Amino acid sequence: MGKFSHLLATSIAVLLLINCGSLIAQTQQQHVHDMSHDVMPFDMSKTLHVFIMNDQGGIQKVVVREKAGPEQINLIRQHLKHEAEEFAKGDFADPGHLHGSSMPGLAEVNASATSGKMQITYSPMPGGAQITFQATDLHTITAIHRWFGAQLSEHGADAKAE
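RE: above sequence
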């Protein structure tokens, strides 16, 4: 291989490494945003996930951002109502599909819902809907907080804590 060919091959290899690094740097946040349509019928760019951790567990809200139409509100409400029903049965397949089955707190929250240690309720609200997760035992409350924290981290700019 001549000097030019070697230099060209080295340059290409460096560019590939840089590009691969940026693909890896895409992270779980970008993956979750890109894959959200597999689980959620609403447009992530037009909505915001809000996580509120409290002494009883927490509240997960999904609300529309400015200029999102009523169709997004209806999709949020349909989805969260369905999710609350599934969660109450101990079915957390959708978050597991989107975030991975090993996400922090997921297994414990699932077990707590299945064993009746946690109450899960849906309610519509202006601009969206919410799911309330309530428990009395510290293990379940901690699991809810860990699960919310993982979602906050992985949703990135699509989520906030209150």
